[in-house]
Amino acid sequence: MNRNVLIAGGGIAGMAAGFAAARAGWQATVFERAAEFSEVGAGVQLGPNVTRILQAWGLDDALKHVAAFPSGLHARSMATGEVLATLPLKDAVAIYGAPYVTLHRADLHGLLLQAASREGVQTHSDAVVQRVHQTPEAVTLDVSEQGLLQHHTAPVMVAADGVWSPLRQQLLGDGLPHFTGHIAYRALVAQAELPVHLRSQDVSVWMGEHAHVVSYPVRGGEYLNVVCLAEGQLLDDDANHLQALQTWNAQKSEAQTLAELHHALRGASASLKDLIATCSDWRLWPLCGRPAMQGAHQHVQGRVALVGDAAHPMLPYLAQGAGMAIEDAAVLGVQLAGAVNTDVPQRLQAFAQARWQRNARVQTRAVRNGEIFHATGPKRVGRDMGLRWMGARLMDVPWLYGYRLS
Ligand SMILES: Cc1cc2nc3c(=O)[nH]c(=O)nc-3n(C[C@H](O)[C@H](O)[C@H](O)COP(=O)(O)OP(=O)(O)OC[C@H]3O[C@@H](n4cnc5c(N)ncnc54)[C@H](O)[C@@H]3O)c2cc1C
């Protein structure tokens, strides 16, 4: 039997898994249904738990070329713009040994794709994974490649096919993800196009009633990524096309999108409204998810490992979805290093045991953050008082950022 790993999906999870498997001495092949390997969309934040892994993978120089290194994360009131508390992100290196960065998703994906190619990972685009079959000895993937059905067999397979993962539906039979009732509207604006008082090299989170706005620099600080996350209804027509809307390029009519945004931000301060008004070309993304992971079986079935959003889709309110995909890949790499074909199922079980509770904890905490960010009435008053009083101590998450691979 060969030392091959088959990977379904060439997003951040798939490319990270391919890279980690190749570093562990396996020949990885990634199948991506899109015609090109790329990521569109806007930004991601990566905490020191993730940049520590990228450093260990030798990618810190590549990261420095594309990332921004914000010095603080400001929790603000949406209504007044007041900074309630600041987490000094510039201290991440001293405290956690690695930086907190913000970058464009395409830059993160490009960095992983290049690193994977250098390690000899093979990539097949226009390759739609149809089904997986497994015996105790091997896994076979049916893949439609440029219209032709191909069969690939290997000792290990990784399902990295995203929140709507067809492979998860086949393997776990737990149906489609649900609409969380939250919608993300995002825009990207060149800092040079913003009035000076709206430019920023820091992360800001403006917390309002049933909505919040996040902004941070990307592309080395040249652009500002602005995302409004609001509780909202989908129109019937949208609800019927939920899966089609799961792309960073989804767009309603400009008038409809702006009307929804203005409604969500009706209580916002003048400067936040100015920032929103300066941005154009808003794109939306209805956020879909699943309950937090309930056991190792949701990470591994025999010789198949599920990673990234396929295993644990989450609200982006802890900014860790891509981070958890990269952690998954790193732990998978540790288990695959030195694995032989006969002990692959045990190695994958060790991977699942090392990962599922942490992923469940991050999923749960992301939901809680949403409740805190969107609080109303006495809960909002208590939140603001707590932030003013306890400051960074309330915002730091040592169990998250201090993670070491096991
Ligand atoms: C508004 C918002 C903000 C976010 N902010 C952050 C943040 O700050 N920090 C962070 O860490 N995370 C963040 N995330 C989460 C992060 O974007 C995701 O967790 C991450 O991109 C998931 O990567 P993935 O590779 O698992 O899935 P995807 O990116 O969905 O990739 C799956 C890939 O599989 C392919 N595919 C699907 N089906 C098949 C098939 N049958 N055959 C072949 N290929 C297939 C798809 O085309 C796709 O390329 C955010 C998410 C949102 C929505």
Write a concise synopsis of the structure shown.
The protein has 14 helices and 18 strands. With 406 residues, it is of the alpha/beta class. Helix 1 runs parallel beside helix 5 (105-118) and helix 10 (321-336) runs antiparallel to helix 11 (344-373).
What does this entry look like structurally?
The protein is of the alpha/beta class. It contains 14 helices and 18 strands. A seven-stranded mixed beta sheet has the order 5-4-13-14-15-12-16, with helices on both faces. Helix 1 links the parallel strand 1 and strand 2. The protein is globular, with a radius of gyration of 21 Å. The two termini are about 30 Å apart. Bound molecules: flavin-adenine dinucleotide. Flavin-adenine dinucleotide binds next to helix 1, strand 3, strand 8, strand 16 and helix 10.
- Tell me the major beta sheet: 7 strands, mixed
Bound molecules: flavin-adenine dinucleotide
What percentage of the residues does DSSP assign to strands (E)?
A: 25-35%
Assembly category: single chain
Structural class: alpha/beta
Per the principal axes of the C-alpha atoms, what is the gross shape?
globular
Mean pLDDT: 94
